Amino acid sequence: MTDGGRLDLVVQGRVVLPDRVLEDGFVGAAAGRIAVIGDLRSAGGLPRAERTLQAGRAYVLPGVVDTHVHTRSEPAEGITRCTAAAVAGGVTTIVDMPYDMPSAVPDAETLRRKIRDVNAEAVGDVALYGTIRKTGGLDEIEGIAAAGACAFKVSTYESDPVRFPQIPDGELLEAFRRIAATGLPVAVHCENQDIVDRAIARARAAGDTGPLAHCRTRPAVSETEAVARVLELARDAGAHVHIVHASVPRSFELVERYRAEGVRATAETCVQYLVLDEDAMERLGPLGKINPPLRAPADRAGLWDLLAAGRIDHVTSDHAPWTLDRKSDRTDIFRNGSGAPGVETLLPLLHDAGVHPGRISILDLVRVLAEHPARTFHLFPRKGILAPGADADLVVFDPGEAWTIRGAELHSAVGWTPYEGMRVRGRVRQAFVRGRAAYEDGAVVARPGDGRFVPALPRRT
């Protein structure tokens, strides 16, 4: 708050709280935190502030917390470009994956170096995962947790033996036990290596290398078998497992079964599985290659049913941008990188496909994009909610503005999007990170170093 008793910022609009929308509400910020939330109908006017923003009929949302982002898998992207894309899409906090190029983040010293880079380079706020080596790295777990990581990330599928290894089951079980003692969640990429590798080998031998071969060689069972195995290990270890990028309804059903038995388990899907399916692969080609792959239309419909019923914990982007030279081979889908940019389009796409047609409410959207992710990754109540004392991460979102997604106009370094040409309704007007303008009037106004590293909050025992 200023010396004269004024707030630093007041934003007036349709304020979205966890349980209701204040249609004539306002949020006031001071010293980077939310100081007051009120309703004009009862307050009799706005409090004094150095800056007052009248948002009209636009929503005032808590900043989105995207817990599945890769800033450094593609060196051209990096922390600055990724967080610029994030704030332009209303994502004020990302949780960055540990699979950096050329090596991962498997120890406390590497994590501390990355924290220094975040504080120098980030435009928006960043929390961080740690990971473990394929073998022999379990003694680093406690140090990574103490350094401020909000979660660990491991995989049952190997993309690279050093940067993105498959963790053997015995090592995984022991890791789960050690991570459980830290109180942090462990996020798991669930695919069965042997099923996928055998299927790819058969497809290559048959000359089946077109875009749909990527979907056929990673069948649903390659995901669900790994999900069930991970849940069973977590049950024994007492770990909180978070299943990332679940692409078929059965994965969520398995999570629910184990949760009913007392296992600490959460799961996310990604917006691409809600707005695209395998029918788009021939059109998208390599640009649609992600792991797990785009699924059948029936799976997409089933995910919407689960989301509408409140049975999906988070929706994320799995922002994994590759430059076009890694996505250019249309004759052999297997030679292309897996992943796509998406952090900037996460909020508008989910609004357009979910809230606009009435599949989910604006309250549901905030829960799966902000509150639940922040809770799962020990960032709540600092992040993920509009409440006094929380960081003043505010997004002014116009639900009525229609616009066309164009990769060349987005802020990621790679210049393309799998959603090219899609007409969507709902657009970010402004984004504030800890009360400071990060995006407004169509431009990123925050600078590298304005974003900060966000450590996990103390865990409850």
What are the key terms here?
alpha/beta, Urease, subunit C, domain 1, TIM Barrel, 2 domains, eight-stranded mixed β-sheet, 16 strands, 31% helix, globular
* Main sheet: strands, sense, barrel: 8 strands, mixed
CATH class type of the largest domain: Alpha Beta
Average pLDDT taken over every residue: 97
Q: What is the end-to-end distance?
A: 34 Å
SS strand fraction: 15-25%
Order of helices and strands: EEEHEEHEHEHEHEHHHEHEHHHEHHEEEE
User: What is the architecture of the largest domain at the second tier of CATH?
Assistant: Alpha-Beta Barrel
Number of helices, where a helix is a run of at least 4 consecutive DSSP H or I residues:
14
Could you list the spans in which at least 5 consecutive residues all have pLDDT below 50? none
Helicity, as a percent range:
25-40%
Q: Structural class of the secondary structure composition?
A: alpha/beta
What does this structure look like?
- This protein is an alpha/beta fold and 461 residues long.
- It has two domains: 7-61 and 391-400 and 425-444, Urease, subunit C, domain 1 (Roll), CATH 2.30.40; 63-376, TIM Barrel.
- 31% of the residues lie in helices and 24% in strands.
- The chain contains 14 helices and 16 strands.
- The protein has helices at residues 40-43, 78-88, 108-121, 141-146, 169-182, 193-205, 211-216, 220-237, 249-260, 271-275, 281-284, 297-308, 346-355, 362-376; strands spanning 7-16, 21-30, 33-39, 49-62, 64-69, 91-96, 125-130, 151-155, 186-189, 241-243, 265-270, 314-316, 394-404, 423-433, 436-440, 443-444.
- Strands 3-2-1-4-13-14-15-16 form an eight-stranded mixed beta sheet. The protein has an eight-stranded parallel beta sheet with strand order 5-6-7-8-9-10-11-12.
- β8, α5 (169-182) and β9 (186-189) form a beta-alpha-beta unit.
